C-alpha cells in the first residue's frame, strides 16, 4: 500500500504541475499577443501624431500672407498685379513613338 500512495501522490503532483505549466504557457502567449497589439497601436498613434503635426504646421503656414500667396499660385494659378510669370515647357528631343 505505501507504494500506491506514492504513485497517487506523484500522479497528482504531476497533474498539478502539468496544469500550471499549461496555464503559464497560455498566459505567456496571451501577454505576447497583447504586447504585439499594443506595439502596433503605438506605431499607429505615432504615425497619426506626426500627421497631425504636419497638418498643424500647414495650417499655421497657410494662415500667413506668404502661405496664402503660395496656395493661390500653386492651386489656382493666380498672381499679383504687375507680377511677371514665366511658364517653362519641356519638349523632348525626339517625339515618343507608339508601339
UniProtKB/TrEMBL annotation:
InterPro entries listed in its UniProt record: FtsL/DivIC
One Pfam family it belongs to: DivIC
Keywords per UniProt: Membrane, Transmembrane, Transmembrane helix
Domain of life: Bacteria
Protein name per Swiss-Prot or TrEMBL: Septum formation initiator
Ranges annotated as spanning the membrane: 6-26
